[in-house]
Amino acid sequence: MAGSKELITGGDLRRMIAGAYNKFLLEHEGINQLNVFPVPDGDTGTNMLLTLGAVARAVAEAPERGIGSLSKRAADSAIMGARGNSGVILAQIFRGLARGLLGKDQAGSAEVGKAFQYGVLYAYRAVAKPVEGTILTVAKGIAKGTRRAVREGLPFYDILDQAIQAGESELARTPELLPALKAAGVVDAGGRGLIVFLRGCLEGLGGVYAGPEADVDRTLRSIVPTVDFEIARPYCTEFIIKSHNISQAEARRKLESQGDSLVVAEGSDVLKIHIHTDHPGAVLESALTWGTLHQIKIDNMADQHRSVLEEPVQGKTKVAVVSVAGGEGITDIMKQLGAAIVIAGGQSMNPAVEDFVDAIHSGIADQYIILPNNNNIVLAAAQVKKLVGERAEVVPTVNIPQGLAALIAFAPEKSLAENVAAMNSRLSTVQSGAVTMAVRDCMVGDCQVAAGSYIGVADHEVVVFAETAGETLVQLLQHMIRPEHEVVSLYYGADLTWEQAHDIVAQLTSKLGPVAVELYFGGQPHYHFLVSLE
Amino acid sequence: MANIQVVIDSTANVSAEILNHYPNLHVVPLKVLLGKQEWPEDELPPERLFELVAQSGIYPTTSQPSIGDFLALFEQLAGQEIIVITLAGALSGTAQGARAAAQMLGSRSIHILDSGTTAVGMIRLAQTALKLAERGKTAAEIVPQLERMAKGMHTLFVPRTLEYLHKGGRIGGAAALFGAILQIKPVLCLVEGQVQVLDKVRTHPKALARMLDELKQYPRLQHIGLVQNDAMAEAEALSRQIRELYPYTAFSITNIGAVLGAHLGPGIVGLVFQEEV
After folding, report:
1. B199: nearest Cα among A429, A294, A533, A342
2. Which residue of B201, B206, B210 to mutate against A (max A Cβ within 10 Å)?
3. Ramachandran area for residue A521 (φ above 0: left; ψ -120 to 50: alpha; else beta)
4. How many CB pairs under 8 A join A and B?
5. Sequence-ordered list of residues with C-beta below 8 angstroms from that of A334, at least 6 positions apart, any chain
6. For residue A217, with 0-12 CB atoms within 10 Å meaning exposed, 13-18 middle and 19 or more buried, which class applies?
7. Other Cβ atoms within 10 Å of B176 Cβ, number
8. Are A268 and B179 in contact (CB under 8 A)?
9. Of the partner residues A404, A411, A422, the one whose CB lies closest to the CB of residue B197
10. Among A203, A210, A499, B240, whose CB has the most other CB atoms within 10 angstroms?
């Protein structure tokens, strides 16, 4: 096929994008495996796949025929569909392409080559502090290869081929540039993703790929103005029990069978109950025998859900917080602290730029504060800010404890600027850690730790490991705690029951000295405990 | 010329010493109710109140002085200029009661001043009024000065528990905090007499530190009053920091009375400070 293409058309671009998407469907898992960090984190392969999926969908539906207008369409959808840092960078490359092909019906190979170079430039600009040894290094290599091939007057197919070769040799260098890659024995996942992308383009262009039109699964998108709920248990029931004659554990045991999303929290002399049930009456009947009931609140969540969908502009506020969380316990806590919208996502599932934009378009407030609550979502949040301008500000929280600390400072009656300042000032007041299971072998200090061991993470570094979640938590806290810490908040994840978490914490308190330890239901996936020290 | 009489309500928790020192200073008590029992505030030390709450499990309520209480005092002081200084009108109907009594008497020589604060803040206003009166100022001259002074008065407090505020229904803007899953410690303040949340933090020591930070926003102060109840250790630690920061500013530590105790609970630490006017 080489040399057969001198003019690139809109149709070629369509086939390239479909080819790239198809290639990603096959290879994204392999890219996910290139995770440096042995924790279940935002998966680069999945993020790029989903970002490309948004592009493939938009381009497949687009009526445009010219390469210029079609690439604009691709860029717009990539920006909205971008997930994770790698998705955001990929979207920038599409933007560059669109910029280079602006107004063209078809383009010569040199023009497309230049457009790719624009893309690399945009990608660089999107990252606040570009680091070598990442996707950017590979992108630069690709740009260099492209430039050379364009100068030699090669046909586009060969330009792409050369670009891939240049990119691959840079990719091979990434472990030399970033010690973390070398230690893990992998190349950069985002860079690898870029190569896969170009290979897919090449296959699509050359017709090597002959699959059906990409069938893009939309169901992965999930913006959650109300928490996902079982419609079979529609009544969100909350109340407080005073003068109770029942322990927290006992109450939990008795209520567990009556619904889901159960939270039994102990306050000073009170128990606070939250449950989603199909029989609120039965729940209240049993609770009546344990003490006096107060502040009883029963909502049909189907109504809430409907009202969110149908009439979002009710009691518009000045400033609203859009936060991100995985796990319904964390989601509930964030809502109680004043987050108006909690987008489902986080460690293992990074929301798309579009999810944030949708949240902002819900129109519930004049201005918005975005809390990404994850390192790998910060860049997407920054893109949102670029798209919506002064309607939103980002408080760049990189983990859930930071997100909660920032939310505590949120005061809806204050201005956007006052809130952003107050919330930013809290980020440094909290130290964050987590207990999880290693998803692959790794080194902790000089020790080899096998996949499946429990590991404790502090400040994005694996610092301890042990046989059990409880022992790991003890070691992690002993590693992290300082005399100035006053409270340790533990949020237990979906992999633990309340009893398990409670038992672990009961054994913990004697080992930590004079600090308050509070245990909350987080419900987050993968992480047995999220830890916050203040 | 006629003496000027100053009337304050019992939430000022004025000491016997000050009362003896100023024969022209009078106190009208609010009332504390626990179950079916009722006490005038000045006859129920807050420690005793908290004991009774612990024994009975009943939370106290309070009521303003009756109009009759004001009428009786006003009649006793008839013929003289009277300045009445009450606690914040948004917290209690005391100012309203005093106004109603003055209207019933048709007297033009009774002046009612809503302090917008309480506790030591009211004592500061009363002392200023009495001193100005000694210097021969008339009520018409004194009241506007007190009003200016009241505007420069700031009231902050950190409760150890939100239970009492919640029970008493005076929780205002802090309502949203009660019943939340995550334990939050608010720093509360009075804004135009109403309880509002100044800030929210995670621990009690941080709340006290935040209150101190707020104080630091005001470099020129006439007086700093630290108030406390059943929290002397915390109050003393805080007072050392304040005195270091403001070595030349008048400073006092006082206790709060049973009415504020009934709404704020044991373990309260607060600041009532007064800007230079």
Report:
1. A429
2. B201
3. beta
4. 51
5. A323, A325, A342, A403, A404, A407
6. exposed
7. 16
8. no
9. A411
10. A203
SS3 label, residue B110: strand
d(CA A9, CA A5): 10
* A399 within 8 A of A489, measured Cβ to Cβ: no
Determine the residue type at A34: L
Distance from CA of A385 to the nearest CA of B (A): 27
Domains of chain B are 4-30+65-150 (3.40.50.10170), 153-275 (3.30.1180.10)
Q: Look at residue B174 and give its three-state secondary structure.
A: helix
What confidence category does residue B175 fall into, taking pLDDT thresholds of 50, 70 and 90? low
E-assigned strands of A13-114?
A: 106-108
In degrees, rounded to 5, the angle at the alpha carbon of residue A270 between the alpha carbons of residues A266 and A274 is 65
Give Dmax (Cα) for chain B: 62
Report the complex ipTM.
Answer: 0.81
Q: Which residue of chain A has the CA closest to B205?
A: A486
Which residues between 270 and 289 in chain A have a beta carbon less than 8 angstroms from any beta carbon of chain B?
272, 274
pLDDT tens digits, A4-63: 447 889 999 999 999 999 899 888 888 988 877 777 666 888 889 999 999 998 998 888
Name the region of B79 (left: φ>0; alpha: ψ -120 to 50; beta: rest): left
- Mean pLDDT, range A205-217, rounded to an integer: 53
In whole numbers, what is the pLDDT of chain A averaged over residues?
Answer: 85
Of B179, B197, B203, the CB nearest to A486: B203
Write down the pTM of the prediction: 0.75
For strand B31-34 and strand B61-63, is the pairing parallel, antiparallel, or unpaired? Answer: antiparallel
Whether residue A416 contacts residue A422, with contact meaning beta carbons closer than 8 Å, is answered with: no
Spell out the domains of chain A, with CATH numbers in brackets.
7-206 (1.25.40.340), 235-429 (3.40.50.510), 431-533 (3.30.1180.10)
Distance CA B6, CA B84 (A): 6
Asked whether A289 and A211 are in contact (CB, 8 A), the reply is no
Q: A240 in contact with B at a CB cutoff of 8 Å?
A: yes
Which residue of B59, B178, B183, B196 is the best one to mutate when testing the A interface, meaning the one whose CB has the most A CBs within 10 A? B183
Q: Which residues are paired to A236 by β-bridges?
A: A276, A299
Residue corresponding to tokens 């206790």: B255
Cα separation of A298 and A283, whole Å? 11
What are the backbone angles phi and psi of residue A101, rounded to the nearest 5°?
A: -105, 10
Mutation choice for A interface testing from B183, B184, B202 by most A CBs within 10 A: B202
Separation of alpha carbons B42 and B62, rounded Å: 13
What value, to the nearest 5°, has the Cα angle with vertex A448 and ends A444 and A451? 95
Q: What confidence score (pLDDT) does residue A457 get? A: 94
The reply to whether B184 touches chain A by the CB within 8 Å rule is yes
- DSSP structure string for A352-417: BHHHHHHHHHT-SEEEEEEE--STTTHHHHHHHHHHHGGGEEE----SHHHHHHHHHT--TTS-HH
Nearest residue to A372 (alpha-carbon basis) of A388, A391, A356: A356
